Amino acid sequence: MKIKKLQKKKIIISVTNDLSTDQRVKKVCGTLNAMNYDILLIGRKRHTSLKLKRPYQTKRMRLVFNKGALFYAEFNIRLFILLIFSKVDIYHANDLDTLLANYLAAIIRRKPIVYDSHEYFTGVPEIQNKKLVKKVWQTIEQFIFPKLKHIITVNQSIAQLYKEEYNKDLRILRNVPNKVETLKLKSKSELNILEDKDIIITQGAGININRGIEELVEAMQYLNNVCLIIIGDGDVIPQLKKRVLELKLENSIIFKGRMPYHEMMQYTQHAKLGITIDKDTNTNYKYSLPNKLFDFIHAGIPILASKIIEVEKIIKNYQIGLFINNHEPTHIANQIKYALDNKELMSALKELESCILVASNVCPSNVVICFSLLHITIFKL
Q1: Are residues 365 and 330 in the same domain?
Q2: 105 and 35 within one domain
Q3: What is the per-residue pLDDT for 364?
Q4: Are residue 147 and residue 213 in the same domain, yes or no?
Q5: Calpha distance 168→359 (Å, rounded)
């Protein structure tokens, strides 16, 4: 789709992560930049943050606090000050943890605001057992959400939840990363991967509780000649590394940490099976559509998945993978073994997967259409 050049306007986009591996935000910023917006992307700076090289302006704030209530308070106060005193035409808030600062700035400056809800924030597992914390986030959402005019989310299931709760119609922008064309695929030896083992992989920015990774690690003790690569970071990584040592699986499980997207996809393309087995234990995960699902599709590898609603729809519709029925480690191991040993099945899945790469390539146009509609609505062009 040809991108129409529009009169240059300033949009400030904010998110609480460090910008390094957020493919959704990167895709949105890249599209808006191509649509001739003047972009300022604001996030946080951590000591582990990767270097950024973007064709638009970025600002990462160094904070005193790194987590909890004090982090969110410090981030939003400093963000609010930046938003108030910056030249801007549109505010763009990513997730509920940036919404308050953006909303208040938009009210004071009388500017439009776009809200991108990456997940069903009040349903995330990290706050389900923290009644006061959950109440604070619910109060912020209930105060602001009904007043918003321009809202985006990641899939139809979450859009429907918000429709039922607030009677709001949301636009859908799926978490599909832009396809990366690898100039040269590195060999296993160059990537320090064992040549004589079948590679399976899971990856993502949030390797946290209830993602099924704990059970996946346990399953590895029942598999021979299989190597699991875990790319990314999250709350359970220290626990997983300790468990790997206890099970003496250091030669079968490799932790790669965070890395730039194009580097991560080098490993993904060597895998024979991509794993996405989030648990249906909370509202957010129940309706999630993980980025890694589309990473596996881009890499052309079959998928082993849990039956959460949006993931199951895609895998069944395109017949590009198989499922686990529960999270027992022995069952997960059996499904992995079945997939890897069944050469005809794996070949058929890869052929089907290559067919829908065409569908994944329309993602950039989907972003353009979404934001063109928002631009027309906001500025009445």
Answers
A1: no
A2: yes
A3: 45
A4: no
A5: 28
DSSP string, 174-203: ---PPPP--SSPPPTTTTT--TTSEEEEEE
Same structural domain for residues 346 and 368? no
What local confidence, expressed as pLDDT, does residue 261 receive? 87
Gyration radius from the chain CA atoms: 21
Q: What is the pTM of this model?
A: 0.83
The DSSP bridge partners found for residue 39 are 11
Q: Specify the CATH number for the domain of residue 100.
A: 3.40.50.2000
Instruction: Please tell me the predicted confidence (pLDDT) of residue 360.
Output: 47
Q: Under 8 Å CB-to-CB from 351, ≥6 apart: which residues?
A: none
Q: What is the C-alpha separation between 218 and 108, in angstroms, rounded? A: 53
Residue whose tokens read 């500025």? 379
Backbone angles phi, psi at 78, to 5 degrees: -70, -35
Q: Is residue 224 part of a domain?
A: yes
Range of the domain at 241: 198-359
- The answer to whether residues 225 and 299 belong to one domain is yes
Q: What is the pLDDT of residues 324-349, one digit of tens each?
A: 999 999 999 999 999 998 877 777 76
